[in-house]
Amino acid sequence: MEIADPMLAEMGKNLKEAMKMLEDSQRRTEEENGKKLVSGDIPGPLQGSGQDMVSILQLVQNLMHGDEDEEPQSPRIQNIGEQGHMALLGHSLGAYISTLDKEKLRKLTTRILSDTTLWLCRIFRYENGCAYFHEEEREGLAKICRLAIHSRYEDFVVDGFNVLYNKKPVIYLSAAARPGLGQYLCNQLGLPFPCLCRVPCNTMFGSQHQMDVAFLEKLIKDDVERGRLPLLLVANAGTAAVGHTDKIGRLKELCEQYGIWLHVEGVNLATLALGYVSSSVLAATKCDSMTMTPGPWLGLPAVPAVTLYKHDDPALTLVAGLTSNKPADKLRALPLWLSLQYLGLDGIVERIKHACQLSQRLQESLKKVNYIKILVEDELSSPVVVFRFFQELPGSDPVFKAVPAPNMTPSAVGRERHSCDALNRWLGEQLKQLVPASGLTVMDLEADGTCVRFSPLMTAAVLGTRGEDVDQLVACIQSKLPVLSCTLQLREEFKQEVEGTAGLLYVDDPNWPGIGVVRYEHANDDKSTLKSDPEGEKIHAGLVKKLNELESDLTFKIGPEYKSMKSCLYVGMASDDIDVAELVETIAATAREIEENSRLLENMTEVVRKGIQEAQVELQKANEERLLEEGVLRQIPVVGSVLNWFSPVQALQKGRTFNLTAGCLESTEPIYVYKAQGAGVTPPPTPSGTRTKQRLPGQKPFKRSLRGSDALSETSSVSHIEDLEKVEHLSGGPEQMTLEASSTEGHPGAPSPRHADQTEALKKGALRPEVDHPQVEGLESLR
């Protein structure tokens, strides 16, 4: 089917080509990098005769994706489907329609507005309603408040604020409402903040995220007695945080009793388009107004929000700003008008139904996963799933109980709460990276702490979330649970070990999800100040480098202390059972060694400088003594040569060596006399202050030994090591064993007499093969 108007056909073609170019991930390279501006006053793109469409779109693409040298901080825009193209076409088409003559424009905009309003009211079961389309989601509620004020205050148009001053209006908001909503309404309406009334949620019965209806009725009665006017109540059909729905049926009865305007908003309003709707959400169809966001629900970009309302006075709706005679205001519905026709009723219902099925799929899967708590109401139709990790530590109360046990101190409860929040924050960030199509968000709840929210109604249509993505999300959660559980169990043990180790200070950082944070207190550490410590930073930097070189499963980072500027060592998550005692001991010993080495290097400069000066003085004295011994005649060039030829001087080579350990000069005469400089004497082993645990081949550092078979593992590992040593001795031959037996005599690391006897026996066995030695045959088999 061809389009009669060639302008519309060309517009659709240009939009398709533009979207294809903007969605293409491969960008063209700039052809003229060295082009200079002709004039310094006019920017480059405005010079000459202008740019073509391709160049302009290329510039827009570069601005959206950033420079190639910069690292991508956020993922690029997703590929928009055909329904998204229709929504974008609506904005271009609106600009084109605005050029029509006034009569055609009036008829067309009226038709678009009436059709879109009728379709939305029928789809979402809101009969005989009017629609207001707005870009800002909260703008519709502000207009509804103006309409309520004009309806309740008849003289407001004439007297203005004086009418409100004599009888102050009250707007009731739930404690679970969106943050900043009350402040926005007061700013838009010019009302003082005392006109807002915050209604608490249930504390004893029902959901902790639902409005307390009994307490609301008490607040309304108190306001009426004080001479105030209860004006408007904002209820939630799916709170912004966890998606819980207020008891809208009871709230409607209460509003009718006191003449209060009832406004409903929330993501659960999308379920009104489905065949089965819960009773609490279905009650929203009887409210005075509701605000919906069909753009995220259906995956439509740049589509306005819609506020449906019921009112019989067109004059008041015009004064409140809900209706307008301007065609441009009516054209706001054009993108949604095009998109709804493209999707059809089946497509709209299918997208909303698919999102609800994803939520139910995740909820049912998480019920089978241990240590995962789901914060969702009992209704099966809730399209929002909020969950968090929790675990009861052995011998203690549950970590995530809302009401702590009486024997737990407030500080202990707060510490456990912060630790759990850090772990859940880490879990949420990991899941967002592993499954980006899930659209997860991490949020902080006042009563429950940090949680992870899955709201496919707001993200699935845009990100293209499928059932396979939900299954992958559950698998990722199960793979991260051992890490979370192990880390949580090792935290208290790590704290006790650090507090019992000299030189280490445990730092309680509630935002760190790892095992813990520790700071090494060096000798010059000023504990009374919170300023940065350069010496401590140097020690901790070296400590992190050495610990990461051990190639353990732990990660170590350096950063400033919580609420301080001093450097600390941050120990990461643990994926296996860790020997915390060995870990803490290694940290302390390594930090102590780094501190001692740094002190040695600092003192080295002064010691070496003094040694050089002393060596110069002694060498000068040695030269003077040599002149006295040889005489003056030997210093004359010709005479000295003849004299040295007849009577050579047998002079010893004298020099000075500098002992860094003792910090003093020593003579080199013993070295040249005894010729011991190149003897290759093996130095004694360097003593180590760190108690290192023997590990099996391939075993990583800080791994805890098996508790159930300690004796067996130690015996088997020791015997295995001894067998390997015996095989190495046999493979070396009799000559090597003879040299080793002679060289180890009197050496600090010489073997015991028993080992010497075994070596001698092995040597005789090697020289006399006719003697039967079963032990040697066994070792040969091992080799």
Automatic annotation (TrEMBL):
Residues 382-488 form the PDXDC1/PDXD2 second domain. The keyword Cell membrane does not apply. Residues 23-42, 677-783 are annotated as: Disordered. Residues 605-632 form a coiled coil. GO terms for molecular function: carboxy-lyase activity; pyridoxal phosphate binding. Its cofactor is pyridoxal 5'-phosphate. GO terms for biological process: carboxylic acid metabolic process. Residues 23-35, 720-729, 754-783 have a biased composition (Basic and acidic residues). Residues 494-599 form the PDXDC1-like third domain. The keyword Iron does not apply. It comes from the Eukaryota. Keywords: Coiled coil, Decarboxylase, Lyase, Pyridoxal phosphate. PANTHER family: PTHR42735, PYRIDOXAL-DEPENDENT DECARBOXYLASE DOMAIN-CONTAINING PROTEIN 1-RELATED. Belongs to the group II decarboxylase family. This is Pyridoxal-dependent decarboxylase domain-containing protein 1. It comes from Cebus imitator. The gene is PDXDC1.
